[in-house]
């Protein structure tokens, strides 16, 4: 694609649109962070960064970009892991992090309307102060809601409550031509034509720029209790999960972890985990409106776990114990990152009953490829996070072994009828694996959708299906 080379006249035009030179970064004033995302494997500097504060600004800049054939990459906190917010074709980065306002809390319709730059942790805190609950719980709490919607982020509560898509009622979008449209709204049901809102959710900023979101809320559960359950083997731990789900007692979260990952987290945090003696663990959370209600639920699940060979049932029924366990779980990624020089991630999702098979496969793959692979994940929804570690490998050797490990992991996931990404998206880094895993006709349909929204291919070009 031949995009216009961004020059001084374009800088002056964009600055005139914004009217505030402090919110337009150009050339040497562009911070290094705008050239990459959290993982850092894909890097490219934009020509200019616009820190927008309104839908109207986003619209005006997009109109200019469309008229002049300049690529635009939307960006929130930059916490993505697949290069989705990296401007690989240069042009304009549209930073939406200053659009971080709560616009309306509608307690009658149980919705909250926010701008895309609101952080996940701010949203959770805000609605909880009103005795309400936003269930999606991705691990990165400093991610923006816009980013969560763009990747259809999941998180630990997905097993009971679902993913981000299930809580998006309406979206205001700036299209690639600069026009402003709205999809969905506060209505609970909607059979009015194609599900346009749901096309935007998970589209990774390739179809439109989210400038407002109406999100569904629930009443806040009053209590939460966690169970840490050690098992002699991962196979026994994972094999118990389908039985838990079938018991009609669905926990809020079902996580799996292994001893080595726990020890990494202990070292990283400088704190002891309640137990690190067993090979594998399930970590379950239950929520509800009373201790009695939750106890009735976890008693049934505890019995199932013991019948399947669990060594013990460790109950965390105080806020302090709960915090210590979930803080360690939340530190797994950073702990693994701190233990190596660089890493890349596989975010596959497989049927729940195949999780142990793909984890065991990743263990064998370490020896086959000659790299360390650390994994943990959401046993309740089959989403595995496997991290391939560079350690002291040379760049050339790393690239070779990483490519082989990735190829084998995605091939195995495909064999198990899984998908390339459970929650982090495709972005730029995972495009080859998506192409390999999907029918060419499906890829063609995706490209057709992109063309319908963005015939000039200026919005986050080169991502997902291109």
Automatic annotation (TrEMBL):
Enzyme class per UniProt: oxidoreductase
Superkingdom: Bacteria
Cofactor(s) listed: FAD
Flavoprotein listed as a keyword: yes
The EC number(s) this enzyme carries: 1.1.3.15
Record-annotated FAD-binding PCMH-type domain positions: 42-220
InterPro entries: FAD-bd_oxidored_4_C (IPR004113), FAD-bd_PCMH (IPR016166), FAD-bd_PCMH-like_sf (IPR036318), FAD-bd_PCMH_sub2 (IPR016169), FAD-linked_Oxase-like_C (IPR016164), FAD-linked_OxidoTrans_Type4 (IPR051914), Oxid_FAD_bind_N (IPR006094), Vanillyl_alc_oxidase_C-sub2 (IPR016171)
This protein's record includes keyword Flavoprotein: yes
Pfam family, one: FAD_binding_4
Residue runs in coiled coils: none
GO MF: (S)-2-hydroxy-acid oxidase activity; FAD binding
Entry keyword set: FAD, Flavoprotein, Oxidoreductase
Protein name: FAD/FMN-containing dehydrogenase
């Amino acid at each position: 694609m031949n995009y216009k080379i961004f020059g001084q006249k374009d800088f002056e035009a964009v600055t005139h649109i914004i009217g505030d030179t402090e919110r337009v970064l150009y050339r040497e004033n562009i911070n290094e962070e705008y050239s990459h995302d959290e993982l850092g494997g894909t890097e490219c500097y934009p020509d200019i960064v616009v820190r927008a504060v309104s839908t109207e600004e986003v619209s005006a800049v997009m109109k200019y970009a469309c008229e002049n054939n300049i690529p635009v990459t939307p960006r929130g906190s930059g916490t993505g892991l697949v290069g989705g917010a990296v401007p690989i074709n240069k042009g304009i980065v549209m930073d939406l992090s200053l659009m971080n306002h709560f616009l309306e809390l509608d307690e009658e319709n149980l919705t909250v309307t926010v701008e895309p730059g609101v952080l996940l942790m701010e949203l959770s805190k805000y609605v909880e102060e009103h005795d309400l609950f936003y269930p999606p719980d991705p691990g990165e709490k400093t991610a923006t809601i816009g980013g969560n919607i763009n990747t259809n982020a999941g998180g630990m509560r997905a097993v009971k409550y679902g993913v981000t898509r299930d809580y998006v009622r309406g979206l205001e979008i700036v299209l690639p031509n600069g026009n402003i449209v709205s999809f969905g709204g506060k209505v609970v049901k909607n059979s009015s034509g194609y599900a346009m809102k749901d096309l935007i959710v998970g589209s990774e900023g390739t179809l439109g720029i989210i400038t407002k979101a109406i999100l569904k809320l629930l009443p806040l559960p009053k209590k939460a209790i966690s169970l840490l359950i050690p098992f002699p083997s991962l196979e026994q731990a994972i094999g118990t999960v389908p039985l838990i789900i079938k018991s009609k007692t669905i926990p809020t979260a079902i996580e799996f972890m292994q001893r080595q990952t726990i020890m990494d987290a202990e070292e990283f945090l400088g704190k002891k985990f309640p137990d690190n003696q067993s090979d594998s663990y399930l970590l379950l959370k239950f929520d509800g409106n009373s201790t009695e209600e939750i106890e009735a639920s976890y008693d049934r699940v505890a019995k199932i776990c013991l019948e399947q060979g669990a060594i013990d049932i460790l109950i965390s029924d105080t806020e302090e114990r709960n915090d210590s366990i979930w803080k360690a779980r939340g530190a797994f990624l950073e702990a693994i990152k701190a233990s190596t020089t660089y890493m890349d991630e596989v975010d596959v999702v497989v049927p729940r009953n195949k999780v142990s098979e793909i984890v065991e496969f990743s263990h064998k793959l370490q020896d086959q490829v000659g790299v360390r692979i650390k994994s943990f994940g959401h046993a309740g929804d089959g989403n595995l996070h496997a991290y391939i570690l560079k350690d002291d490998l040379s760049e050339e050797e790393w690239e070779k072994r990483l490519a082989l490990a990735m190829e084998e992991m995605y091939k195995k996931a495909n064999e198990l009828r899984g998908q390339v990404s459970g929650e982090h998206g495709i972005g730029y880094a995972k495009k080859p694996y998506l192409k390999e895993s999907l029918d060419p006709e499906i890829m063609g349909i995706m490209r057709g959708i992109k063309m319908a929204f963005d015939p000039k291919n200026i919005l986050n070009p080169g991502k997902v299906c291109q």
